[in-house]
Amino acid sequence: MQYDVVVIGSGPGGYVAAIRCAQLGLKTAIIEKYNVLGGTCLNVGCIPSKALLDSSEHYHNAAHAFADHGIELDNLKVNLQQMIKRKGEVVKSNNDGITYLMKKNKIDTYYGLGSFVNKNTIKITDAEGKEQQIETKNTIIATGSKPTTLPFLPIDKKRVITSTEALELKEVPKNMIVIGGGVIGLELGSVYARLGAKVQVIEYMDAIIPTMDRALGKELMRVLKKTLGFEFFMSHKVTGATTKGKTVKVTAQNPKGEEVTFEGDYVLVSVGRKPYTEGLGLENAGVQMGERGMIAVNDHLETNVPGIYAIGDVVRGAMLAHKAEEEGVLVAEQIVGQKPHINYNLIPGVVYTWPEVAGVGFTEEQLKEQGRAYKSGSFPFKASGRAKASGDTDGFVKVLADKETDEILGVHMIGPRIADLIAEAVTAMEFRASAEDVARMSHAHPTFAEAMKEACLAATENRAIHI
Ligand code: FAD
Ligand code: NAD
């Protein structure tokens, strides 16, 4: 078979790239190593973790918030097996959705490991070892990432686990030790803390979610301690672990240089992810690697070999599904000669804990480092009528704007449903709105979104109405 484009990998980068290629009239194929489409995000990432976050949040609210709303329940209990089964059904229904989209867009799907024979020939090796070759003018590598592990802490997939196993546990841990206070550790730690586990987070840095605006991690830490009993051990360097029966002992060096020991029945290792290129045969096509195992690409996401592109987790930048999707669209449009653009500074980051956390644009720390003159306006959810009605008063919205021009430079939020509210900040910033522009727009009352308007008012000559 001869194709205009072959996409290797069917995660959010790959399958979206394939659809956009097909929309643009290119004869397209997609190759996936596993026998289901959707990649990390759909099968062991974004979607299953959010399904468990939603289920566990329902339980936690039923156990801790319903009574306050005047709803009384007897014999409330967790059925973890059903939660995991439901999660599987959510994933399956999305798998089917992507299969349907491939058919609808007349994209040929191949299941098996894709590897380069040369620049224009791709070999597909299926699970039984059967091989076939296809020819292509362009290739988009979208092979994603795998969990990073620590050399002294082998993953046994039973007691010492990564996010993949944490989505399939057969029991609620009694004491879950989470190594790494980043997105995965806090999201999956929240799932099991809500279901009754004691969660201890060991973090190497002096802050959780350290790449986001520091005010967010500080508030999230306060709330997770208060509502879910999380314990945090910051600036701790994990040095080893031993497993005996059902118990894992983790040793770490505390900030004073002393050795401390943690004991749990499960250890979740969530210290980041690394690009995945194994078995791709990049050398056969002459594709050069970049730093830290990434494929090197230029601003157009093209590798050193013309016609071979790479997108998503396998290249530089945030490891986020929506970043991968934008890159898939960009490459497809470039192949047909269009001039698309991605504003990487306006790709939002979201943590789906409760309260949710989200940020876009520059953090306050980055603005300070740049020496940029800025002003800041904040609005706390405890002053929001809507948040009081729902009982979700933790958190705030913080808006950072240029001191002279009032242009919004960064928006950082922690609070109820702000995973969706951050889209307003992205829209405003894409249109280069000033804080006053947003402050003058009508926001329905009572909504959580009013906190965005109020924070913009606060940044505009300190004019917030409700604080
Ligand atoms: P992937 O989704 O990793 O897909 C790559 C695909 O390529 C895989 O299916 C793989 O099997 C296939 N492949 C690899 N090599 C070959 C080969 N040689 N031949 C054929 N196929 C191959 N991001 C968010 O934005 N929001 C979230 O809420 C979120 N939650 C997450 C939760 C967890 C627990 C995890 C682990 C990640 C989460 N992420 C989230 C990150 C997100 O999953 C990734 O950023 C995203 O999946 C990257 O997409 P991708 O297309 O680059 O690669
Ligand atoms: P992360 O980079 O978010 O967090 C890793 C954390 O581990 C960091 O805080 C880091 O300082 C810490 N760390 C590193 N080495 C350590 C060590 N030896 N001991 C203790 N702490 C250590 O990585 P993650 O949580 O594993 O997630 C991986 C990727 O998946 C991220 O890039 C993230 O973007 C993506 N993801 C996104 C979402 C989302 O968008 N909601 C959810 C889950 C995962």
Automatic annotation (TrEMBL):
Binding site for FAD: K50, G114, T143, G144, S145, D313, M319, L320, A321, H322
Known EC number: 1.8.1.4
Residues annotated as the enzyme's active site: H445 (proton acceptor)
Residue ranges of domain Pyridine nucleotide-disulphide oxidoreductase dimerisation in the record: 347-455
Start and end residues of each FAD/NAD(P)-binding domain: 3-328
Binding note for cofactor: Binds 1 FAD per subunit.
Other noteworthy facts: The active site is a redox-active disulfide bond.
UniProt protein name: Dihydrolipoyl dehydrogenase
Organism per entry: Pontibacter cellulosilyticus
Encoding gene (name): lpdA
